Amino acid sequence: MSHHNQITQPSLPFAENALEPVISAKTIGFHYGKHHKGYVDKVNKLISGTEFEGLSLEEIIKKTVGKSEHTGIFNNAAQVWNHTFFWNSLSSNGGGEPSDVLMKKIEESFGSFDVFLKEITEAAKTQFGSGWAWLVMDGNKLKVMKTPNAETPLTMGVKPLLTIDVWEHAYYLDYQNKRPDYVTTVLEQLVNWDFAASNLK
Ligand code: MN
Q1: Residues surrounding ion ligand 1 at CB below 5 Å
Q2: Residue ranges of the alpha helices (H) in the chain?
């Protein structure tokens, strides 16, 4: 039974099989239904009866980041947020190039769209172990970041626009150890540029 003070898992913004063949329904089923849900269940268990119960997910993340006594709450809360942001960063109609405003911003910040693609691909490929690759707005400029484990730019004074999950559970069933193939194909076919552009505001 759900409690009104609990953190909830938003619905997937697409059907489980909508991203095939780039990401299989099986991967999405496990990733959303087991991994993402697991973080939601765990954070609710951990905050129950604490000062964090009833706060928004963002507040919990910001109040626990960097605090060694709250590592478990931070990790699970940030993973809930990162995954919801990741689902929104994907679309069956995605890939290609962003529209005018975001494209102009990317060209101003990176020199060209191709340079940006190279940078985010490199960040996603070289994140050692589990983590995330991001496009963020830092002040008035866009930049690429990578974060390990559950770390999120949300706590780093920058505005996330887009992310790619590079934990092995995101691609192993479909691509095994070939993370670069997963990253390249997601960028070419699934990246939701409309979502990224909506985060500019
Ligand atoms: Mn994941």
Answers
A1: 165, 167, 170
A2: 25-30, 37-47, 57-64, 71-88, 100-110, 113-126, 172-175, 179-189, 193-198
